[in-house]
Structure formats: structure tokens, C-alpha cells
Amino acid sequence: MPHDTDEPTGMLPLNLVLGLAALVVIIAGMKAGADLLVPLLLALFIAVVCTAPVQWLNRYGVSLRLAAFLVLGVIGAFLGLLGLLLVSSLSTFVAALPELEQQFRGAYLQLLTWVAERGISIRPEQMSQWLDPAQATHLLPGFLGELGNLLMQSLVVALLVVFMLFEALNVRDKFSQALRNPAPSLRRIGEFSLTLKRYLAVKTLISLITGVLAWLLCLLMGVGFPLLWGALAFGLNFIPNIGSVLAAIPPVLLLLLQSDGGLFAALLLTGGYLVINVVMGNLVEPRVMGRALGLSTFVTFLSLVVWGWILGTVGLLLSVLLTMTLKIALESHPDTRWIARLLGPGTPPARHEQED
Hints:
84% of the residues lie in helices and 0% in strands.
């Protein structure tokens, strides 16, 4: 009997070491293949979201292929119109950079004067190296290069979405032909797809509302290029914890430098962004999502660090989405459900569970 009880205990460290070794290999492979993995992940998530309206149209008598073309056409037209508006706003912003640079220089000189009046010992040439506005112009070529790379990746993602969406229409038939008993696998895939689509739809809708509210706020406060800041708020809302803060910094600084702005107007704009983020992020989103789709605060921040290190900037945007996908996948199998519960926010057990 002692030998039987000692055997599982002796195997536990070995299984743990093998599991950690496999995890290290997987993470190293993902980091090495990040350039290939990022477009595939983006296309996969977009294709999963697109299957919902395709199936809705199919229930009303539209064929699957025609429904897929209609959905892709509507999404493409919307993104194309939004892209034209953003390009127009961005070109106006680039044209206004010299004037903004002059305003920044004036604010910079005022800052130096204020520091000198307070008797703070600091070398002006050192601050000039930290806050030289001319450095911003050196970033423009790199930014335009990154923008061109983004457009090329967007084209690749769009093509992958088309192929993945048509491939997803036949996934049930393929599983039925490949497996002897496809019912359990199809049930888990259905649960995984439904939960993932719900999360993506809710998160995208909340981010869209946040972006619209930010656009309206900047428009009412007289901030230049409000559409650009609204789109920035929409995109950065996918980054947990720090995304909303990063989205508020450029418009607040711009309003602080504007002739019709100032410190009081910038504080009002900061308060408006704070209200939007508190209401949407802390009140609306948890109620719509539900605790079943939640992550603990530590896991959310850890996912931001880990996925950002593995996949770069896109990893920051998709950190919660990727962790939620992992959590949903772990919840779909009984043997790994305990890991998914560790990733969650933690709910107090029910009274009958405490009594048991």
C-alpha cells in the first residue's frame, strides 16, 4: 500500500516539469513566429465574429455563400469609409504639425521659466534634450513607414478573413467526416464559438460606444481632430488598464496647447474621459459581460505583459482577447476547467456548496 500511494506523488513533479517545458517551447515558438501569427490571429477572430451575421442571414433563407459575401461587403464598405475619414483627418493633422510645434515650443519656454522661478536647479540644455520639439519631426518618417506596413498587413488579414470565413462554413461537415463520434467535439466547439462571439461582440460594441463618446467629447470641447481621437479611444480600449489612459493623453495635451484651451479646459476634458471610462469600463461592461467571462485583475495585467512581450503592440491590443480565448478553451474540457477557474475573478461559493 505505501508503494501505491507514493507512485502518484513521485510522478507529479515529472508531469509538472514536462508541462512547464512544453509551455516554454510553445511560447518561444510563438515569439519567433510572431510576424506570421499576428495576421492569423486577427483574421481568425474577425472570421469568428462574421459567422454570426452569416448564420442570421442564412436562417432567413439566404444561402451561406451569398450571406458571407454580403457580410464581407458591408464590413468592407464600412471599414473603407472609416479609413478614408481617418486618412483625411490624419493628413490634416500632419499638415498642422508645424503650427503645433510652435505652440509646443512656447509651452516649453514657459515651463523652463516656471522651473527657474521656483529655484529648481536644472540645466536647460538637459531639459532641451528631454523635451526638444524638433525630435517629433524625426519620428514622422518612421511613423509613415509603420503606417504603410499596417496597410499591407491589413490587406493580408482581409484576404485571410475571406478564406477563413468560407472555410468555417464547412467545419461541422469536416468534423463529422473525420471523427467517429463527432458529437462531443462539435458540442465543445459550439460552446467555445458562442462564448467567444459573445465576448468579441460585446467588447467591440463597448469600444465603439467609448470611441463615439470620446469623439463627441472632443468635438464639444473644441479639440482639434476629434475623429482621430475617437478612433484612438476605440482601438486602445481593447488594451486593459492602461489603454484608456493612453487614449486620453494626446487630446488633453493638444487642448492644453490650443489658444482656445488652457489648463482648465484640459482638466475638464480629463474629467470627461474619466467619466466615460468609469461608466463604460466599470459599470456597463461588467454587467453586460457577466462574471462568467471575467478575468482577475492580476491575470488581466499579467496577460498584458506576457502577450505584449510575445506579439508586440498587437499583443497589447489582443491580450485580454487571447487570454479569454485560452480561458474559454480550458473551460470546454473537464480536465482543464480548474485552470480556467484560477484565471477568473473568483466568486464566493454558494451556500449549498459551503454546506457540502
